[in-house]
Design goal:
The complex is a heterodimer of chains A (307) and B (624).
Chain A (H helix, E strand, L loop, with lengths): L13 H21 L6 H4 L1 E7 L6 H10 L6 E5 L1 E9 L7 H15 L4 E8 L1 H30 L1 H24 L6 H31 L5 H33 L2 H22 L1 H8 L11 H7 L2
Antiparallel strand pairs in A: 1-3, 1-4, 2-3
Helix pairs in contact in A: 1-6, 5-6, 5-7, 6-7, 6-9, 6-10, 7-8, 7-9, 8-9, 9-10
Chain B lengths: L5 H18 L6 E9 L7 H13 L8 E2 L4 E4 L3 H14 L3 E9 L3 H5 L6 E2 L1 H4 L1 E8 L1 H22 L8 E3 L3 E5 L6 H11 L4 E7 L2 E7 L2 H26 L5 E5 L3 E7 L4 H9 L3 E7 L5 H7 L6 E6 L4 E11 L3 E9 L2 E8 L1 H13 L4 E16 L2 E17 L7 E4 L4 H13 L6 E9 L1 H55 L2 E2 L1 H30 L4 H33 L2 H34 L18
Helix pairs in contact in B: 1-13, 2-3, 6-7, 6-8, 8-9, 8-12, 13-14, 13-16, 14-15, 14-16, 15-16
Classes of the chains: A alpha+beta (307), B alpha+beta (624).
């Protein structure tokens, strides 16, 4: 079987990988606890206005003009180009949010007549809380369902391996967003779930091969078999990650500002997911002393696999 | 030999062909257009139609021949600038018409004739307004409790059962004590007859035997659903009055209503009309007491209400209501003797009341009370709750000169208010107050930008992957590319069939699918390479490659599908769009990548002796 000239001892290096992951997880959790996430409008609630100007504008001027009008701590930043500006305001006490919009637009147009409102978003505080709960719930349910599916198909040791890899991925992506302070909004949750799906994809492909090799390779320890399997699937793992990253980078650079955070989350997720399916999933299965008896697939399977 | 039966090949060809036909309407694009409807909902006349042509010609605005159907006329324009100018021009020349900006697909007539339509675009791609309203369910329940309290009060009085007074405690319980212990059973009987569903408990109120009455859970849900449905209908009526093309009004979750208005440029106007709760009440003026006295003491006499005119003059109105806004069947705005006026028509019940009142009160004065409710978030006990502030203004007071019943006019308002008031009286009142909890407005040019960048990202990503696959897997790579193309066509076809709206996250889902769809082919091709390396013949390698990779592909895709399903169920708006395209993409990619490529590979290699396969990298793993 091992006629390939590629035989990296992945499992031999698993301790280094585990230490690496452990450090990354500690940093991620640390940042999540101390800095938290830079919640976007969807979760924090408040107002967001995207203004376009005919030429470059000074953000400091906009900030001071808004402050004079009595808006506290307006967040003003460029969006995509130097002549596009994003203004974010925390929820105001007054209920008249239309008023808030009109006041901001009036203030900014008075300052520069070329200012034009492109987009306005208002999210009430009650919606934000609900979205946070729904997002967390969705993530949890996805993990549980996937756990059940993998358990049915592969037995529990592999299911544990799969879920550890997924939890690992989710924590690291969260950590990335926390450490770099990238705005975390609703689309990021979608990206996280897509990452879960993707990383799972990778993990399952490797597990499938491990299962097959336990059947085909009579000799060899679990470690050897897992190593061989990872090596055999390495080409596929790399190529799929490459094509996926190709399109994601297109999305990141060409898809426009509105989608770039989403694309970034997926890029990070795919990289972490590829790594975790090699190390975390397989290493945890190995740590649980996986053996061929854990893999005897349900009877139905045997018939399926007959040529 | 690797061969599919003929019917198998034909089936695949048929599916792809069907996909192409369903996807076809999407290649023609859209024209900026105006949708013109009449305020009263009647069909547009030929005279109006030629009027439209004439005024656009005079202003030298380029346009395509208007198309009229039963409800609306659609006028297309070559560019957005002409569309906007035409909207202004027609707004002036066509009174009593509603002119809405929209996008009209350029689908050829023969395609629309067989029911094929392009994908609809989400708000983030075409511009427009999205509102999310929260319905105040507490106040809906409160209204129901109040009617029970009133009914009980009347029935107890009719049965002469003296009581301690009926009150609502804790928001969801009605309680009262019975002063005559012998009548307690009679009282209970009355409650049971009033509504057998009510949950009744005996208790002691103010030292007297009494009752605690609560709504049954089923009554609570029923009432809440009723409130939401009622409000959805009202909002839908109002949206129709606004004349928006392809609006969406639907319930979301337990207590929310989504309103989406594509193409709307002025969210402020839309919002004023959607959220407003303006209505009217007609009351007799109290002719026995002096309003200025009452104002000074700040205490209206019993049986009267103290209200104010716009200019601050006090007015005393009789507590008995003659007619309220919900008894109006029609309202329209116009001018009466140069004054802006709303012409109203009453239903028969209201007309009778009006007739009786005017007959009995000739030469007395009657006032029209303009009532506006504005929802407001207030803090109570650290919790935010939704409450309504009610503003009541006397807009006109006039002497009853003669008897009238179902047709009359109201003056004392500005033209602006008159138009809104007429619209709101027509569309009906909101059953319960609503609060806007979310708004997203996207300008039309931003939508256009989003479409452009989305298209660029999809095409570039697609092109790069196609190039890579062809280079890496040679002939096999090209078949995978064909599959990828077929996959894209099928996704677009499915989205068009389902008429699911395409959003920016939806495009992201398509992009992601393009990247992931080749995975199945990569798995198969790597397997074939492996089989070849193990010394198997090309034909058996192809067979083994497809067969052995299948369960892996299925497992991998099913798990991703689970994630997509969860997203679809739990997500709203943008997330759902992403989940839809991702889920559809996974399913179509399974078909194209496994069956589609097999058909092509079989056609190329299946029916002959093959020495070697053009799959690249057969010399070993050095490439990986």
């Amino acid at each position: 079987m091992l006629s390939t000239n590629l035989n990296i001892n992945f499992m031999g290096a698993r301790r280094i990988a585990l230490i690496l992951s452990a450090v990354a997880i500690v940093f991620s959790l640390g940042s999540l606890v101390t800095r938290g996430l830079n919640f976007g409008l969807d979760f924090s609630g408040g107002y967001l206005l995207e203004m376009s100007y005919s030429s470059e504008v000074d953000l400091a001027d906009i900030r001071s003009a808004l402050a004079e009008e009595g808006f506290e701590n307006p967040l003003v930043q460029n969006f995509g180009t130097v002549s596009d500006v994003l203004v974010r305001l925390m929820p105001q006490d007054v209920a008249g949010d239309t008023e808030t919009r009109d006041r901001v637009v009036a203030t900014l147009s008075a300052q520069d007549p070329s200012a034009e409102l492109q987009r306005f978003e208002f999210v009430g505080p009650q919606v934000g809380d609900e979205l946070t709960e729904d997002g967390a719930l969705a993530m949890l349910i996805a993990l549980v369902l996937i756990f059940i599916y993998v358990m049915l198909r592969f037995r529990w040791k592999f299911a544990v391996g799969t879920i550890s890899a997924l939890v690992h991925d989710v924590i690291l992506v969260f950590g990335f967003f926390s450490i770099f302070g990238v705005a975390f909004d609703l689309t990021i949750v979608a990206a996280l779930l897509a990452t879960i799906g993707y990383s799972l994809n990778d993990t399952i492909v490797v597990f499938d091969r491990i299962r097959e090799n336990f059947r085909v390779m009579r000799r060899g320890t679990a470690k050897e078999i897992i190593n061989a399997s990872i090596n055999q699937m390495l080409g596929r793992t790399m190529i799929t990650s490459l094509t996926t990253l190709l399109v994601l980078l297109c999305l990141f650079f060409l898809g426009g500002e509105a989608i770039s955070g989403f694309a970034l989350a997926l890029v990070v997720g795919v990289i972490i997911g590829t790594y975790s399916s090699i190390y975390i999933a397989s290493a945890s299965a190995l740590a649980l002393n996986v053996s061929s008896t854990d893999l005897i697939p349900p009877k139905r399977e045997e018939i399926d696999d007959m040529p | 030999m690797n061969r599919f039966p003929l019917w198998g090949n034909l089936l695949v060809a048929l599916i792809v062909l069907g996909g192409l036909i369903f996807a076809l309407p999407n290649v023609f694009g859209d024209d900026p257009a105006l949708q013109i409807t009449r305020e009263d909902g009647n069909p547009i006349t030929d005279i109006t139609l030629s009027g439209i042509n004439a005024s656009l010609d005079t202003e030298e605005i380029e346009f395509f021949q208007p198309v009229a159907d039963e409800q609306a006329v659609i006028v297309r324009f070559p560019d957005v600038a002409s569309q906007l100018r035409a909207s202004e021009v027609l707004g002036e020349t066509l009174p009593f018409h509603i002119i809405a900006l929209t996008l009209a697909p350029r689908t050829p007539a023969w395609l629309s004739a067989i029911g094929l339509e392009p994908m609809s675009l989400g708000l983030d791609l075409r511009g427009g307004v999205h509102f999310l309203y929260q319905v105040d369910l507490d106040s809906a329940l409160d209204q129901l409790m109040q009617t029970y309290v009133q009914d009980l009060r009347t029935r107890l009085r009719e049965a002469t059962i003296r009581n301690t007074g009926i009150e609502i405690v804790g928001g969801d319980t009605i309680q009262f004590g019975v002063l005559d212990p012998l009548r307690v059973n009679d009282a209970e009987q009355i409650i049971r007859v009033l509504d057998p569903l009510l949950l009744v408990d005996r208790t002691t109120v103010d030292g007297q035997p009494g009752f605690q009455i609560e709504l049954a859970p089923v009554q609570v849900t029923e009432r809440q659903n009723f409130a939401i449905q009622q409000n959805t209908i009202t909002l839908r009526n109002r949206v129709n009055e606004l004349g928006v093309a392809e609006p969406v009004v639907q319930r979301q979750g337990l207590n929310r209503i989504v309103v989406q208005l594509p193409g709307v440029q002025d969210p402020a106007q839309a919002e004023r009309i959607l959220g407003a709760t303006a209505t009217l009440e007609f009351r007799l003026v109290d002719w026995e007491n002096d309003p200025y006295d009452a104002d000074q003491n700040n205490r209206p006499p019993i049986g009267s209400l103290l209200r104010y005119h716009r200019d601050g003059r006090p007015e005393l109105l009789r507590r008995d209501l003659i007619v309220s806004g919900d008894q109006l069947t029609d309202a329209s705005f116009g001018y009466s003797q140069g004054q802006p006026a709303v012409f109203v028509r009453l239903n028969s019940q209201g007309a009778n009341r009006m007739l009786e009142t005017t007959q009995a009160n000739l030469r007395r004065s009657m006032s029209v009370l303009f009532i506006e409710e504005k929802p407001e978030l207030i803090e109570r006990d650290g919790e935010e709750i939704l409450r309504n502030t009610r503003e009541e203004t006397v807009i006109s007071t006039a002497t009853i000169q003669g008897v009238f019943s179902n047709n009359f006019q109201i003056t004392g308002i500005t033209p602006f208010e008159g138009q809104d008031l007429a619209l709101m009286l027509r569309a009906g009142a909101l059953a319960t107050p609503i609060l806007k909890v979310e708004e997203r407005t996207i300008g039309p040019s931003l939508g256009q930008d989003n479409i452009e960048s989305g298209r660029t990202a999809v095409l570039t990503g697609f092109f790069l992957v196609v190039l890579f696959m062809a280079f890496y897997y040679r002939v096999f790579g090209i078949t995978a590319d064909l599959a990828l193309f077929a996959n894209l066509v099928l996704i677009v076809a499915l989205l068009s069939m389902l008429q699911a709206s395409l959003t920016l996250p939806g495009i992201a889902g398509i992009v992601l699918t393009v990247g992931m769809a080749v995975d199945a082919n990569v798995l198969i091709f790597e397997r074939i390479r492996e089989e070849l390396r193990n010394g198997n013949s090309p034909q058996s390698s192809i067979r083994a490659g497809y067969e052995k990779a299948f369960s892996t592909i299925a497992d991998a895709n099913i798990t991703t599908l689970i994630a997509a399903c969860v997203l679809f169920v739990f997500g709203t708006g943008p997330i759902r769009g992403f989940a839809t395209t991702l889920g559809l993409g996974i399913m179509t990619s399974m078909f194209t990548a496994i069956i589609g490529t097999r058909v092509v590979i079989n056609l190329i290699y299946g029916n002959r002796q093959v020495e070697r396969l053009a799959i690249g990298g057969t010399l070993g793993r050095s490439r990986a």
